[in-house]
Design goal:
2 helices; 5-stranded mixed beta sheet; two-stranded antiparallel ribbon; alpha+beta; 34% strand
Length: 88
Amino acid sequence: MLKKNVLLFASAKERVGSTEVSLELTAEGETQTVTAGYVMERLGVEYPCLLDLLPSCRLAVNCEYVSEASLVPLVDSEFALIPPVSGG
C-alpha cells in the first residue's frame, strides 16, 4: 500500500473542508500503477461526502485529464480531483 495525496478543487474542496486528502492505494505489480477508476472508487470509500459528486468529476494526473481505464503511476505523480465548474 502506498499513501497518495489528491488535490481538491471547488465543490469537492468545500465538501471535504480541505484542499487535499490522503488515500491508501494498493498498486498493481512492480510498476506501482493503478487505474484512475480505482482512485475514484477509493475517494468515494474514504470520503463518502464525495459519492454523489464523483460521477461528474474528472481525475487529473500531472495536470492532464485521464480516463477511468487509464493506468496511472503512483510514484512522482500529482493527482487532482476536478469537479464540474461553471463560469459567469
